[in-house]
Amino acid sequence: MTSMEMTVPPLNPGRGPGGPAILPAPAVDDPARWAAGARDELHTALVEHGAVLVHGLGLRDPEGVAAVLGRLDVEPVAERESFAPRQSYSPGVHSSSAWPPNQPMCMHHELSYTLGFPRLLLFACLCAPATGGAIGLADAADVLEALPRGLTDRFEREGWLLARSYNGEIGATVTEAFGTDDRDAVERYCDAHSIVCSWQPDGGLRTEQRRSAVVRHPADGRRCWFNQIAFLNEWTLAPEVREYLVDEYGPDGLPFNTRYGDGEAIGEDVIQIVNSVYEAHTVRLPWEAGDLLLVDNIRTAHSREAYEGPRDVVVAMASPARPGTCSPTIEVGPL
């Protein structure tokens, strides 16, 4: 097959801002070969809509997802600094993050706290859950426009701060996040990626990194709300989970938390505002086995609803960005 046997339709009526192009795939025996022929049309739809959902592609295993990624002619992203453990299948191709099924994952941009984050995400549903588990999408430029100006002005001036405590119990371990437990290697990585790190008396690691909260999309210059301020903040956690973590590790020892760029705590009211704006701009897509979803990670935030029953969604990350290409509003340092 040398071309995609369909036309790229406009956004489905009624889906609203943030909705993807919905593309039916023809019945094929080789999804990777189909993706190679469809590459230009997929790129065009992704640029226009920020996300593309391909129904019925028949993906069945991580190897098939890796093959599709390889035929799209993009550079895989090797994940570092993960906030939760996940299984790696091949370069750039991973399982979903280990996150309790009964807890939703709120809107975020994948690895937006890293330098060299992926610009392209592929989600492939190998097994749909019995109930729930839909993926949500939200247009980052629309979200920025809808947030209160005073709030976004401060984050543009100061950026946002991510504080992490690696305790070996909750979230990713040092080895899972950095690919090694060698202290010298971890410190070299942190120094090269503008991360302040300190080893604790109990052997744990604490890190802080300041990042831009607003960037410009390299393709069209649109200003996008690009961060994980709400997702990794203590006030987004379920109240009982937050209470347990604070009792167990103390307010300064949470596995992850976010602050204003100057280090000041972010109030619960601010996190509620951010999450409510996300909610107003969310389009939810229930999964079907075999689906493929391509997401522009700068333009489009994503989330995951709680679910019941088995669920297997493979994630591929590609097209690494560099801070300078996205016009960050604060200096974050070179790779």
Largest beta-sheet characterization: 7 strands, mixed
Beta-strand percentage? 25-35%
What proportion of the residues is helical, as a percent range? 25-40%
CATH architecture of the largest domain: 4-Layer Sandwich
Spatial arrangement of strands, main beta sheet = 1-2-16-6-19-4-3
SSE layout and pairing:
Elements: E1 21-24, H1 31-49, E2 51-55, H2 62-71, E3 88-90, E4 93-95, E5 105-108, E6 118-127, E7 131-132, E8 135-139, H3 140-146, H4 149-158, E9 160-166, H5 174-178, H6 183-192, E10 196-199, E11 205-211, E12 214-216, E13 223-225, H7 239-249, E14 256-260, H8 268-280, E15 283-285, E16 292-296, E17 300-304, E18 307-308, E19 312-320
Parallel strand pairs: 1-2
Antiparallel strand pairs: 2-16, 3-4, 4-19, 5-17, 6-16, 6-19, 7-18, 8-15, 8-17, 9-11, 9-14, 10-11, 12-13
Describe the 3D structure:
This protein is an alpha+beta fold and 335 residues long. It folds into two domains: 21-140 and 285-321, 4-Layer Sandwich (Double-stranded beta-helix), CATH 3.60.130.10; 143-275, Double-stranded beta-helix. 25% of the residues lie in helices and 27% in strands. The chain contains eight helices and 19 strands. The strands form five sheets. A seven-stranded mixed β-sheet has the order 1-2-16-6-19-4-3. A hairpin with a 5-residue loop joins strand 10 (196-199) and strand 11. Helix 1 (31-49) packs across helix 2 (62-71). It is globular, with a radius of gyration of 19 Å. The relative contact order is 0.24. The model is unreliable at 1-17 (pLDDT under 50).
